[in-house]
Amino acid sequence: MKEWYRVLIACVFVLGGLYLTSLHNYLLFHSLAEIFSIVIACGIFIVAWNSRRFIDNNYLLFLGIAYLFIGGIDMLHTLAYKDMGVFQGYDANLPTQLWISARYIESISLLIAPFLLTRKMKLTYVGWGYLVATGILLVAIFYGNLFPNCFVEGAGLTPFKKVSEYVISMLLLCSIVLLVKYREAFDTNVLRLLIASIIVTIGSELAFTFYTSVYGLSNLIGHFLKILSFYLIYKAIIETGLVEPYGLLFRNLKRSEETLRAERDKLREVLMELKVLRGLLPICAHCKRIRDTKGNWIQIEVYVRDHSEADFTHSICPQCAKELDLKFGTDTWSSG
Fold first, then answer.
1. Domain boundary residue among 195, 229, 248?
2. Which residue among 101, 184, 199, 217 is least enclosed by CB atoms within 10 Å?
3. Cα diameter, the chain
4. Is residue 271 a part of any domain in this protein?
5. Does 93 lie in the same domain as 25?
6. Are 84 and 90 in contact, with CB atoms under 8 Å apart?
7. R_g over Cα of the chain
8. pLDDT over 70 for what percent of the chain?
9. What is the phi/psi pair of residue 58, to 5°?
10. Of 248, 264, 288, the domain-final residue
């Protein structure tokens, strides 16, 4: 709990500082917010890529490649922001188009990733797929004028931009459902952080459906939520991958080890039971009951049945039948 208090206090100071920065220079605030998410996106790729030879988690590998391209488009979005002066001749529509492109890639990637938990994946195909998809989007935005307008100066957001944010939110919501469905494949803490990150991302997307100015309040709130969502995914993937790798990178290996340990213990118990049957059995000289390891006296047939694969059927042998007939003065037992 103390750690969470420290994190909460740090977040308050950082977000408060960013808010004061936005009052002084919104362009600086936007650049810091975006650079934060870009660094984390690249960090996810670095962790996934450098552990690809021994990792058994296709979810992380797939997202690692995806976030490399997401971070690249976010970098272009940052450079294209209004008044940055990097891309001459463009207005606020360009960074908004780049934003929507990055969010579509992010939401679709988060939706696809859970399906790869139980499937084989070729990194080459995934990398080329993202490269081609990103290239097509950038060509459509910068050269072909094929990408729909997302922002019109003086009018605000276009219907395509608003609808896209709702579609992206739905895709993210579906990705949460899939994470819950495949929850057994994730460490509990990692799963909670991933779900929390996606929920905050949905809040960020919804905030970006209201602004009429790229320097507006809802735009500010949206970027605050984006910072928080990327911090949560940093906690889930980068920090966990480095500090507690068995909770993320080797999750399947850890589960296999636990299963093998349980099977070993079960086998050991069976062997111990078999050893008891082969050893000395304390048996009552009168009633023929056997004393088990817990000190209980039980019938011999019950003991043998519980400690082996044998079972009993009951009958009367000829000698006992004669003794019973003599005892009761009948021939019932021997004739039966």
1. 248
2. 184
3. 120
4. no
5. yes
6. no
7. 34
8. 82
9. -65, -25
10. 248
Pick 82 or 41 by higher pLDDT: 41
The amino acid sitting at 88 is: Q
**211, 157 contact by CB (below 8 A):** yes
DSSP-assigned letter for residue 181 = H
Q: Which two tokens stand for residue 246?
A: 């068995």
* Amino acid letter, 150: C
Greater pLDDT, 302 or 79: 79
- pLDDT tens digits along 83-94: 888 888 888 899
The first and second tokens of residue 6, run together, are 């420290």
Q: Enumerate the β-bridge partners of residue 157.
A: 151
User: Residue 223: which of 238, 199, 193, 201 has the closest Cα?
Assistant: 201
In single-letter form, the type of residue at position 39 comes to: V
> 158 with 202, same domain?
yes
Name the residue with tokens 């929390």: 196
pTM for this predicted structure: 0.70
Bridge partners (DSSP) of residue 36 are none
pLDDT at 16: 82
Burial, 196: exposed, middle or buried (Cβ in 10 Å; 0-12, 13-18, 19+)? middle
Owning domain of residue 181: 2-248
User: Which tens digit of pLDDT belongs to each residue from 203-244?
Assistant: 999 888 877 666 777 888 888 889 889 888 888 877 665 555
> 172, 164, 157: which is closest to 202 by C-alpha?
172
Residues 59 and 48: their CA atoms lie apart, in Å, by 10
